[in-house]
Write a structure and sequence with these properties.
single chain; 261 residues; alpha+beta; five-stranded antiparallel sheet
């Protein structure tokens, strides 16, 4: 059993017009634990539009969070998938952002960002999230959000890892493992979720999962490029002008046969 995973972050049309950088980032990695079990680690982050160094905060959330999770998986395997590990990720990310802010004579709020993360092993999975965007996982009844995007007190606001009360809005859940998962930032929420029923919009995901299931390891680079083109296409930009991030992963059974080896 192994994973096929692709991901991309794309500049929104509004940021393109204002010559602003893309403030979204993502991280994904497949890694083996000490006992040889295969794990998926994936994160996505959306920098706050009002934050001066939002893209740096988002990058730190993904890179520091991803490395913290990878280290835990390598050493402890599924035994390390606990709510305490998720809390460690939040602490490490907040610490890294504080240090980066100090180095720039800025405040942590200047690097504000959301954070979504997942680790999936053979039997267990760990999910966590601060802010909006969503993680969608496949279960027996289809695709469903793990957490519903959390909005702030006012419209177009949410919560960030840099908030003083971030821990109060830090959601963590342990579940049985899944074979398919997607993470995405709030730029795709209106396309990927059905707000009236708080469900996943499966027609958005299913064509992409079908292609990913048929892919080979060698073909994922091309699929990542195709995903980025999709995220910057007129079809998407007509629906949202925000930055967009999407990570898709499927667990392959018999991967050697799929790859033609």
């Amino acid at each position: 059993m192994t994973w096929r995973v692709i991901g991309a972050s794309a500049l929104g049309s509004s940021h393109l017009q204002s010559s602003s950088p893309c403030q979204d980032r993502c991280f994904y990695l497949t890694i083996d634990s000490a006992d040889g079990a295969a794990f998926l680690v994936a994160l996505a982050s959306d920098g706050a539009g009002s934050a001066q160094y939002a893209e740096i905060g988002a990058e730190l959330a993904c890179d520091v969070g991803g490395q913290t999770l990878a280290t835990a998986v390598e050493s402890a395997g599924e035994a390390g998938l606990t709510s305490e590990l998720a809390g460690e990720v939040l602490r490490e990310v907040r610490s890294a952002i504080s240090a980066a802010a100090e180095a720039r004579n800025a405040t942590p709020r200047d690097l504000a960002c959301t954070m979504l993360g997942v680790v999936i092993g053979p039997v267990k999975s760990l999910y966590f999230q601060v802010g909006d965007g969503a993680i969608v996982a496949r279960n027996n009844s289809g695709l469903a959000p793990i957490f519903w995007p959390e909005s702030g007190e006012f419209a177009n606001m949410t919560y960030f890892v840099t908030d003083v009360d971030a821990r109060e809005h830090f959601r963590v859940e342990l579940r049985e493992a899944t074979d398919e998962v997607a993470l995405f930032s709030d730029g795709l929420q209106r396309l990927a979720l059905v707000f009236s029923t708080e469900t996943a919009h499966e027609p958005f995901f299913e064509p992409m999962f079908q292609v990913l299931r048929r892919s080979t390891t060698e073909g994922t680079d091309a699929l990542c490029a195709a995903l980025e083109r999709f995220l910057t296409s007129n079809t998407i930009n007509e629906r949202t002008d925000d930055d967009k991030t999407l990570v898709l992963a499927t667990r392959m059974a018999g991967a050697m046969d799929v790859a033609g080896v």
